[in-house]
Structures are given as structure tokens and as C-alpha cells.
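Thread title: Can someone regenerate the structure for this chain?

I was given the following input by a collaborator and told the matching C-alpha cells would be attached. They weren't. Posting the sequence so someone can regenerate them.
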Amino acid sequence: MKTLSLDTPPEIEEIVLERYRQMPPFEKLMQVFELNQMAQQMAALRIQAQYGPDLSERELRLRLAALWLNRDLMIEAFGWDPEAKGY
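Best answer:
Regenerated them for you:
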């Protein structure tokens, strides 16, 4: 078997894949949810590093939302233009 990952031995990858095959759907969904939370936390840290740690909660949330939503929706829903104010 050719591995999907360059740094994982095939026998280890097979163990991981078998675990995913046996995992109930709700557990898979929880893992996706947790990975999304981690991605948002990392994005928030990047935003705070770029714009400063004293951003208001609203501004931080708008900048985060702008990473996932398109510009037109951000402007229509929140009055926030990410091209003008940044992501």
C-alpha cells in the first residue's frame, strides 16, 4: 500500500485508517468539530499577532468570519469590508 502521508510508515497509516473505519459517525463528527475549533483558535492567534492583542471581541470575530465568508456577505451582513479593513 502506498501511504497518503510522506512521513508515516504504511503499517502505522493502516492502523490509523482502520481506527477511522471503526469509529462511529458521531465520533468522526466530534473530531471534525474539534479540528475546526483548533483552526479557528490558530487563526485568532494569527490575527491577534498581526493586529494586536487588544482587539475587541467583535473585531476579532469579524476578522475571523472574514476568513471563511466571502466579501459580499461580510459587507451585507456585518458592514465589514475585509479588503478595506483586513482579514
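The longest helix spans residues 25-51.
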